[in-house]
Structure formats: structure tokens, C-alpha cells
Amino acid sequence: MSKLKTLFDLFITTFKIGLFTFGGGYAMIAVFENEFVSKKGWIEHEEFTDLIAIAESTPGPIAINSATYIGYRVGGFLGSVFSTIGIVLPSLIIIFIISLFFDAFLQIKIVEKAFKGIQACVAFLILSAGIKMFLKSKKDAFSIVIFCATLISMITCSMLAIKFSSIYYILIGAGIGLIVYLIGLLFSAKANLQNKGDK
Predict the structure, then answer these.
(1) Distance CA 82, CA 173 (A)
(2) Do 121 and 155 share a domain, yes or no?
(3) Does 47 share its domain with 109?
């Protein structure tokens, strides 16, 4: 596939995702996976899972971060530019048009009913993406403990109406992961020293 064709394919694919996916970045995760992992095979599922973790924990909308990363991965710098423009352009055009007659637009009954249906679909898309990522991700003791601890703390905070940003969960998870990694390195170095001493 030529460079120009790859860039055009990236733009068209991300434009299509941006145009037909409602509900923001989280709703787009399942569509991204379907297009870039299942259909086109541009990235592996494991890399896609890592990509979502990075896109979520870095500043900016998850959809734009994901599109930029995939674009760069497939087509280099120009690929990231084409992908980012492709994902942003539909929203920019639609919001600009809606802003011209916003109040009248919201009062249209058909639009109101359509948005209720869209909300239900968005909830399903987010849930579907989460379940797929969970089922395909590696499950070791550490991952399961972190998942359960996060789930319990999120449910507890919601029930007790405690405001606790999702950013803190990400930072705490990253901190615990780093500590466990360093402890593993320490034990590994200690074991190597013991082995050398025994010899």
C-alpha cells in the first residue's frame, strides 16, 4: 500500500468513526478496536489495550489521543496528522452547524427522542468495549487485585457520594505497578547475587 493511499485510508476511517460514533471517546473504543484491530489488523490487540491506557492517562480527549497514536503507528508523523484531522473534522462541522440554530434544534421533538435512543446505545458501546478489553487482557494475580480494588473503591465512592477523580485511580494504579516492578527487580538482583555467591 502506497504512503498516500495509507494516509487517505487513515483519514477516511477516522472521519467515518468521528462522524457516526456518538457519546465521546469511550463510546469510540469499541469502534476503534473493530476498525484498526479486527478489520485492518494495523495494530495487535495487546498494543491496543496499552494504547487505551496511555490515551486515557495523557492530557486530551481519549478519541483524539487514540487516533493520533494509531495514525503515527501506521503512517508516521503525517499519519498522525491525517488521523487527528479525520477524527476532529466531523464534530467541528456538526457543532458549527448546530450552533447556528442551537435553541431551535433542541426544541425539535424528533431530535429529543433520537438523543434518548443515542444515550442508550452509548451506554452499551462503553460497556461492550470494557468487557472486550477485560476478557482479552492478561489476567495475573496483580491485575485481578488492582481491578477488584478499583471496582470496590469506585462503587464505594459512588454510594457514599465521595468525589474522587478517575485520574487518581490511574495515578495510584501506575504508582502501585511501579512499586511492584521495583520490588521484583530488587528480589531478582538479590537472587542473582546469591547464585553468584553459591558458585
Answers:
(1) 33
(2) no
(3) yes
What is the chain's pLDDT, residue by residue, as a tens digit (199 residues)? 577 888 888 898 889 888 877 666 666 777 788 888 888 888 887 788 777 777 776 777 778 888 888 888 888 899 889 988 998 888 888 888 877 776 676 677 787 777 777 777 777 777 776 777 777 777 788 888 888 888 888 888 888 888 888 778 888 888 888 898 888 888 887 777 777 666 5
User: Which range marks the domain in which residue 120 is found?
Assistant: 1-137
**DSSP letters spanning 43-73:** S-HHHHHHHHHHHHHSSS-HHHHHHHHHHHH
Residue 146 and residue 125 share a domain: no
